Amino acid sequence: QVQLVESGGGLVQAGGSLRLSCAASGRAVSDYGMGWFRQAPGKERVFVARISRRFEITSYADFVKGRFTISRDNAKNTVYLQMNSLSPEDTAVYYCAGTELYGATLRHQYDSWGQGTQVTVSS
Q1: How far apart are CA 52 and CA 33, in angstroms?
Q2: Residue 114: which residues within 8 A CB-CB, separation 6 or more?
Q3: pLDDT digits over 105-123, tens only?
Q4: How many CB atoms lie within 10 A of CB 65?
Q5: 22: number of Cβ within 10 Å
Q6: How far is 49 from 69, CA to CA, in rounded Å?
Q7: Distance (Å, rounded) from C-alpha 88 to C-alpha 91?
């Protein structure tokens, strides 16, 4: 099992940008499909983005397409989520996760989770 730690969250104004990092240890991120999820207060944890381990194929939830970009740096053993054009609806705790399955977009398909980092977007 890979250990994951998120960072980079904070307070940002609407329309602004933020870059989240997910540092892995114990195992290489290149051995897993990696994803980002988010959970707003009183809401379910939902899929945001994923990147595959073989060819870095990416997939995004409809509500972030064109605004968010997921990437991976194997040398740094880190996964990133670049978030642009942020709105208050993006306010949530953002989680990094790893899976041995290909094309996973559901929470139960991921086995490794970070503790999350808070993102708050003010209007």
Answers
A1: 5
A2: 4, 5, 6, 22, 95, 96, 97
A3: 999 999 999 999 999 999 9
A4: 10
A5: 27
A6: 8
A7: 6
